[in-house]
Amino acid sequence: MSESPQTARFDLGQSLAGLAGRKAALIYLHDNPDPDAVAAGLGLGRLLEHELGVTITLGHGGIVGRAQNRAMVDTLGIRLHPVDSLDPEAFDLIALVDSQPETGNNSLPLGHRIDVVIDHHPPRPASARAPWCDVRANFGATSTIVFEYLRARGVAIDTKLATAFFFALRTETRDLGREATAAERNAYLELVPLVDHGLLYRMSHPKVPRAHFAALDRALRSAEVFGNLVAVNLGTLGYPDLVAEIADLLLSYESARMVLCIGEYQHNAYLSLRTEVDNARAGAVMRHIVAHDGAAGGHGTMAGARLYATLATAAELESTFREMVRRLVDALGIAAGSGEPLLKASPDEEALNDG
Ligand SMILES: [Mn+2]
Question: How many angstroms does the Cα of residue 106 sit away from the middle of ligand 1?
Fold first, then answer.
């Protein structure tokens, strides 16, 4: 694997020395954080605490929506702070993990001073203003990078952190099957004996509210198939991550090579795109279809976006959905007008309904 120039120049010891004397660190996770962001933040916090003696605050915008993500935070007792309750000026060390400045999916104020950027998404020019910039776009998870820091500095990884890292690797790479490198496989093996598997089970099999099944029902009834693309408008979302959750689920349909989900949360449209491993260009496709209408990001098989336009009605969301499907169908070269419902009422069912 080729390393980015930023990685080649990166020196952990020097980067830590450059932050000597700092007192209070604010680590931004991306908005609506997932297990990779949470574990990377927790691990970086452990490293900075150990090496610099700084106090650590983990902050994020949005909400921890997905049931597994909430279960991780609750089960491991991880303290996350909503950014509205934090003043970045009160901190003399600012870090961002699993995201980069000016990507639109984090709450670091635009143009704000930034000391540390650690990520595995494609490098962005604004990240270069962080003296400690370690972006490894070839890695499967940000947690792997932070895991390697702790190993390199000989910092102990306790049960809680090991379980967080392990859960991040499992979910981010779908048990090493999606975009995992030798670095992920190595971290995974080293973590196995350190993990609390009882806690891991509670995180992996969380209880979900009734709203989850309502969304699932709506998704299955309204999903449409265009060739090997499945697209669905979920309507109003209980939380933004629902688009990703449903997209992951629909990708298991035997004819699906790509899934697009859209939904509305607090008047904004959220999109999620998932692809099969052998068709891994989700990030590029998402940036292409969203174009200048929103902030999009992602890598090989998974991408997300939030559109800038404010939506007032369900009809506006539906026309936005139609436009995004049209662009995607165009980009993929699928014959126009080929959409059909994923679930067709069977003749038996129709007979029952008629009777
Ligand atoms: Mn990640």
Answer: 13
| 348 assigned to some structural domain | no
pLDDT by residue (tens digit) across 35-80?
999 999 999 999 999 999 999 999 999 889 888 999 999 999 999 9
Domain-located, residue 134: yes
Containing structural domain, residue 265: 210-341
Distance 33 CA to ligand 1 centre (A): 9
Burial class (CB in 10 A: 0-12, 13-18, 19+), 337: exposed
**What's this model's pTM, rounded to 2 decimal places?**
0.86
Tell me the C-alpha distance between 53 and 96, whole Å: 19
Q: For residue 120, report the distance from its CA to the centre of ligand 1, in Å.
A: 6
CATH code, 188 = 3.90.1640.10
- Inter-residue contact 41 to 27 (CB < 8 Å): yes
Distance 141 CA to ligand 1 centre (A): 5
Highest-scoring range by mean pLDDT, 18-32, 231-245, 264-278, 331-345: 18-32
Q: Distance, CA 319 to ligand 1 centroid (Å)?
A: 31
